[in-house]
Amino acid sequence: MLKVRAVTKKFGTHKVLDAVSLSVARGHIAVLLGSSGVGKSTLLRVLAHLETVDAGDITFDDKPLDHASNQHLVGMVFQQFNLFEHLTAEENITLPLEKVLNMPHTEAVARAHKLLAKYSLAEKGHARIAQLSGGQKQRLALARTLAMEPKIVCLDEPTSALDPLLTNYVAQVVQDVAREGYIVLIATHDTTLLERLDCTIYLMQQGKIIEQADAKTLKIHPQDFPYIMRFIEGKEG
User: Fold this and answer.
1) Tens digit of pLDDT for each residue in 154-179?
2) What's the CA gap between 217 and 196, in Å, rounded?
3) Is the pLDDT confidence value at 67 over 80?
4) Where are the domains of the chain?
5) From the CA atom positions of the chain, what is the Rg in Å?
6) Opening angle at CA 33, ends 30 and 36, nearest 5
7) Which of 29, 104, 200, 210 has the fewest CB atoms found within 10 Å of its own CB?
């Protein structure tokens, strides 16, 4: 279980996260919903230890989220993918395994091949990043993250550059990742994802979570979640 308790983050005098609290169990998906600048991506960066907090605490299985002892506990898939452009798809996976985990080359290649096949990229193993489509880059970025065997997977705007068909595919992939036992957090403003995921939705505004809903309950009783519905209808954010 991941627990975020009253986490606050400031950049100068601007409070980007304001006492944010949430819990996500293994095998579950949390969607941080909201427009740009409300703190969604910052919360993911805090979880990935790319930003520090000013107040509050984060625990995993009732222990502090300790990146010093387990720096690969959280995997991050960035909005711009952050792939190594000068390397092949296969090398994008093997390099971190060899350099960070000190994995033998043959073992790293075997893991890369397995993940490339899993995400329909087997024929793209020797392709450079510039030769991949946006959807292929998205899948490669996820494969590279999962290769490090994290417990928590964070995805920042995973469908921002994808068409509806690829959005459906990414949603299915994310759902499958959760079924494998990962904790998944997604920062997005894409409300179409909500229809495709079995998730808990956290609507954020001005650094705060202002409403929370289970996706299935939202579909059955939308009137119970006025703020989320206003955002979905384009009346907020």
Assistant:
1) 999 998 867 777 788 889 999 999 99
2) 14
3) no
4) 82-141
5) 18
6) 135
7) 104
Band (pLDDT 50/70/90 cuts) for residue 205 is very high
- Tell me how far apart the alpha carbons of residues 60 and 54 are, in angstroms, rounded to a whole number: 19
Count CB atoms within 10 A of the CB of residue 18. 18
Name residue 55's amino acid.
A
Query: What residues have CB less than 8 Å from 234, skipping those under 6 apart?
Result: none
Residue in the structure block whose two tokens are 């499958």:
176
Q: For the chain, what is the mean pLDDT?
A: 92
Phi/psi of residue 94, each to 5°?
A: -70, -35
